[in-house]
Amino acid sequence: MKKITVSAPGKLMLLGEHAVVYGKPCLVTAVNQRMTATVELTDDKIFQLDAPDVQITNYQKPITHLGKGEIPKGAKFVEMTVKNFLNRHPERLAKDLSRMRPSNKLRDSSASPQNDNLGIKIVTKSEFSSEFGFGSSSASTVCVIKALSQLTGANLDNKQIFNLAYKTVLDIQGKGSGFDVAAAIYGGTLYFVSPGKVIQPLKINTLPLIVGYSGIKFDTVRIIDEVAQKAKKYPWVIGNVYDQIGQLVEQAKKAILKEDWESLGELMNFNEGYLATLGVEGKKLSRMIYAARDGGAYGAKLSGAGVGDCMIALHSVQGKQAIKKAITEAGGQVINIKTNAEGVRIE
Ligand code: MEV
User: Do 186 and 268 belong together in one domain?
Assistant: First the structure.
């Protein structure tokens, strides 16, 4: 049977979170900690998933039941990804299966996954904890689409993978800008406008970033909803905040391209101020952020939805150790990553 392994990077939001959900640009970098999916086409009509990092072992269901019934949290993204791929590309799989079993008559090219013997076995493995907010769900969605695209000869290009992965994220979460999906596919450091209206890779060599994990997990969709409630009540405040964050992103893009870390740090600090106005700074995260600044960082802010997950700090060549120490003393866990990592790839 045909089998393939694909990997995709995690991501860190640099500037522009929340505002990006409402049409403003953001900056995101891919990190060198990766999600891997090994995908195998079988002919037993079973969908099988092992995702030990999210406590899913030997999860099975008939392929005809994809998306139906109670789906465990850790299996949702992969299962819905497979369902969406099969709905979008049934003819590819019908052809593929007929090649795998030469005795079978070539199937009707409009065949749906409900009427063939296709089975799919998937094993995912992550180099990073799903608690970090590095985008493990989006990365696994991207891996599975890339793998199925290769196995079936659908050969989707990056934009087609983006569209299908983003649709899957929206089917499950209902909201989100898709910046994490873009980072998993394209890698590098991106200037992004939702929903993939602009995906511009920034040509840079390095990004001197330190990452601190708060140990706190909060539901991203809930945070987005809370911010949306504020925006409804105080549109004149929050609308201005989004506009200002958009401006900061434009300036930060220029600073990144010039490797002007001092200015980028200042812009990050401004961005953190606006995130505090949105109410997502989080007490522990902000202690870590202020500690990093006191420790000598050019700038520091939260990264992602806020309240929990990670913060980022920009360091000078000599200042790295002092900032790491400050973050640790504030109760954070420093996570060693490299930025600007490669996008989705076949292993
Ligand atoms: C979450 O990591 C970042 C948000 O901007 C949501 C999104 O862009 O999908 C809050």
Answer: no
- Looking at the domain assignment, is residue 345 inside a domain? no
At 129-143, the pLDDT tens digits run 999 999 999 999 999
Contact 53, 125 (CB under 8 A): yes
Q: Walk across the sheet containing 209-213 and list its strands.
A: 299-303, 310-314, 209-213, 333-335
Same structural domain, 60 and 166? yes
Q: What are phi and psi of 121, to 5 degrees?
A: -115, 130
How many A from CA of 261 to the centre of ligand 1? Answer: 24
- pTM of the predicted model as reported, rounded to 2 decimal places: 0.93
Residue span of the structural domain in which 263 resides = 209-335
Q: Among 202, 223, 240, where does a domain finish?
A: 202
* Whether residue 142 sits in one domain with residue 278: no
Cα separations in angstroms, 332 against 286, 288, 289, 323: 11, 7, 10, 11
**116 Cα–ligand 1 center, Å:** 38
CA-wise closest residue to 29 among 9, 49, 44: 9
Whose Cα sits closest to atom 8 in ligand 1? Answer: 177
